[in-house]
Amino acid sequence: MDPVNLGGIFFYLCSMLSKNKIKYLTSLQVKKYREENNQFVAEGVKLVDELLKSNFKITEIFALKEWINKHASIRNMEVNEISLTELERISGLKTPNHVVALVEITNQQINVNEIYSDLVIALDDIKDPGNLGTIIRIADWFGINNIVCSVNSVDVYNSKVVQATMGSIARVNVYYTDLNKFISNAPKDIKVYGTLLEGENIYQKELSEKGIILIGNEANGISSELISLITDKIHIPSFANNNNDKAESLNASVATAIICSEFKRRIGF
């Protein structure tokens, strides 16, 4: 079926998704195919709406008629009206949510001059997609614009990561690099804060307006090669009534939220 051009939007009304298109969309759940095609999938009304307002380039949209009717003002984009059954076939969610978008991956390069001028979060081999997505959302909430991940951390364009950001991926820069080199090459006046059991109580520690907040792997914490680069060891104290019977540690994203909150509280608004 030929497309219908309505004010710059190309609709494929009542068309059936081809098997090849369904196969392609579902293949992007795998990192290998995302990298090969330089695209990722975003799902859900809030997430797609946030991406539409961002610098990300959306190349194609697959949506229910209800979503399309509410977004009649978008331009220069291929929009396919699909049925709920088709949406369920291409969705990676248990409960599909109105719209799926194909988005181009942006290969960003670290701006060294900019990144060290504020707080930056460094993630050492974060593996859980939910943790990374939540940390991106936390960074967005606390006005931290940059996250630097080790090369072995979970892919930011993993669909579970993208979903967990709740749209914050549109506003936070996420880079992948050798963390050892990144931290070693930081200016001498940049402090590196790492959470360790022997660290100083964060609520009593002097904190700076800029620096690197280093968060370790969920199971193993901060790797030994990076511990030596920490300039300021910090610790989130437990307030449990019985110190012998308490949680062993905090979830990586929870710890990140507490640390970011204390930094911003200290700096002021």
List keywords for this structure.
269 residues; alpha/beta; Alpha/beta knot; six-stranded mixed beta sheet; six-stranded parallel beta sheet; 11 helices; 23% strand; elongated; disordered N terminus
The largest β sheet comes out as:
6 strands, mixed
**Beta strand count:** 12
CATH-assigned fold name of the largest domain: Alpha/beta knot
Report how far apart the termini are: 55 Å
Unreliable parts: 1-14
Helical fraction: 25-40%
Strand order of the largest sheet: 1-2-5-4-6-3
Shape assignment? elongated
Q: Can you tell me about this structure?
A:
The chain folds into 2 domains: 4-104, 60s Ribosomal Protein L30, Chain: A (2-Layer Sandwich), CATH 3.30.1330.30; 112-267, 3-Layer(aba) Sandwich (Alpha/beta knot). The radius of gyration is 21 Å and the shape is elongated. With 269 residues, the chain is α/β, with parallel strands linked by helices. The chain has helices at residues 19-27, 31-37, 45-52, 65-70, 84-90, 112-115, 129-141, 159-164, 179-184, 224-227, 252-267, and strands spanning 4-6, 9-11, 39-43, 58-63, 77-81, 99-104, 119-123, 146-150, 173-177, 192-201, 211-215, 232-235. The strands form 2 sheets. It has a 6-stranded mixed β-sheet. Strands 9-8-7-11-10-12 form a 6-stranded parallel β-sheet. It starts with a strand and ends with a helix.
